[in-house]
Amino acid sequence: MYNYTFWISLSQELKTITSVKNLKIGYVLIKGGSPGHIVILADEVINDRGEKLFLLFQGNTPAQSVHLVKNLEDTSISPWYNLEIDAVIPVSNYTFYDSKFARFK
Questions:
Q1: Which residues have C-beta within 8 Å of that of residue 101, sequence separation ≥ 6?
Q2: Cβ distance 74 to 52 under 8 Å?
Q3: Residue 101 in contact with residue 28, Cβ under 8 Å?
Q4: Segment 5-21 mean pLDDT
Q5: Residue 105: pLDDT band by 50, 70, 90 thresholds?
Q6: Could you tell me which residues come within 8 angstroms of residue 60 by beta carbon, excluding any fewer than 6 positions away?
Q7: Which has more confidence, 34 or 88?
Q8: Overall average pLDDT of the 24-42 stretch
């Protein structure tokens, strides 16, 4: 049995990001809970209009090697993700509902 209280604690301690335009590499998409889940914003591209796409990395519990997440919902831009605040964001083995983006303090 694994201790999932880590996701709850981490979710409460991180600083919430409230605007997509403020998302940066190294920030996370997190769902606190038991179980919870987290992915890391690993890279970004920005077009001439300032719109961003992101690459996501994830591991799993118990700890595993980190890997790039494919965008299974929009294969035309995969592995890139067009992220939105409070959106439903499916990743390979988890779906974030009411997504919360955060950063370490």
A1: 16, 17, 23, 27, 28, 29, 30, 41, 83, 85
A2: no
A3: yes
A4: 79
A5: confident
A6: 93
A7: 88
A8: 89
Tell me which residue has tokens 């992220």.
83
In sequence order, the 6+-apart residues with CB closer than 8 A to the CB of 98 are 86, 88
Per-residue pLDDT for 36 more than 90? no
Using only C-alpha atoms, what is the Rg of the chain?
13
In whole angstroms, what is the distance from residue 84 CA to residue 80 CA? 13
Give the pair of three-digit tokens for residue 91: 């990743």
> In sequence order, what DSSP letters do the residues of the chain get, joined into one string?
---THHHHHHHHHSEEE--GGG--TT-EEEE-STT-EEEEEEEEEE-TT--EEEEEEE--TTT---EEPP-SS-TTTTT-B---TT--EEETTEEESS-EEEE--
- Environment class of 96 (CB within 10 Å of its CB; exposed 0-12, middle 13-18, buried 19+): buried
